Amino acid sequence: MKVLILGIDALEYNRVQEWDLKYLKQKEYGKTIVPISEGFGEPVTLVVWPSFITGTQPQQMGFDAPIIYRQPLKFFLEKIYFPLTSKKPKSEHDLSIEEKTTIKNKIISRTNYLMMKIGLGRYPERRDIKVPTIFDNKKYRSIHINIPVYDQIFTAEDRDSARNGVIRAITDKTFRKEFEKKLLDELKTGKENIFKIIKQKNWDLYMQYFYVLDGIQHVFYKNKLKIMDYYMQFNKLVSEITKQLPKDTMLLIISDHGQENGLHTNYGYYSSNIKLGLKNPNITDFKKIIEEKIENK
Ligand SMILES: [Zn+2]
Fold first, then answer.
1. Which of 68, 97, 235, 257 could be a cystine partner for 262, CB 3.0 to 4.6 Å?
2. In whole angstroms, what is the distance from residue 103 CA to residue 108 CA?
3. Directed axis angle between helix 156-171 and helix 173-197, to 10°?
């Protein structure tokens, strides 16, 4: 059996339910348990995706924060500084994105930016992933496009511009248009990849990642209609993929976390076109399932 994975950043379970997006639901769907990065208090893209593709928790996978510090700075920051500076919200959505940006994220992102600038920290790269991924299995052929960390899509520059881009796009109307245009380009290219590769015979596992929904929901969190429009586009995309899907192919949709009011929620999302019989699975459970499906065990 082949496996096609759509990695959709920030796809929120509650929106799929609310708008009854049946193609995104498929035969089986639900929330997943995802790692929460300490000091950040939320699931972080650069940690959750590597955990998913390795089927291991961050500690074992290689890193549990979206930055690799040099020792002994690592110890000081993670054990002393971040716990002190990060104000823990009383509830998940206690803080608005602006508040969150000014309090916790600003401190951490300023610190991180400074550390990177003086060479004491850097973004994680493929070599920091210490265990084999689903793409390293030599028993089958893999194609992977834009997988965070593994495919290096977020270079230091991208990450800074993505973070600053989100913050700037919230307040600056002209820039907001540019920001959305970039996300639309990513969506378009991703769709083109899928419809090209789906016809090829040179893969058993193909994973395509999309960032777009995360950016849209951070920036346009007050504009529910716009968010709905993007969710509908993904719903339609899945319906089109299903029509062209090669026989005997599992279609798995995965997200690293959801979003409510512009903030990450503390669970992910999965859906599958075949019954898996899972109940509130951990995002690290899927590696084994994927490999077994491909190897027909
Ligand atoms: Zn995000």
1. 97
2. 9
3. 130
Q: Ligand 1 centroid to 55 CA: how many Å? A: 21
CB 215 within 8 A of CB 162: yes
DSSP at 88: P
Which domains, from first to last, does the chain contain? 2-59+130-294 (3.40.720.10)
Region label for 261, one of left (φ > 0), alpha (ψ between -120 and 50) or beta (otherwise): left
Kindly state the tokens that stand for 92. Answer: 């998940």
Q: pTM for this structure?
A: 0.87
Helices and strands (DSSP H and E) totals, the chain:
13, 10
Cα 264 to ligand 1 centroid, rounded to whole Å: 6
| pLDDT one-digit tens code per residue, 78-106 | 666 666 555 454 444 444 555 555 466 66
pLDDT digits 0-9 by tens, 207-235: 999 999 999 999 999 999 999 999 999 99
Burial of residue 28, with CB atoms counted within 10 A of its CB: 0-12 exposed, 13-18 middle, 19 or more buried: middle
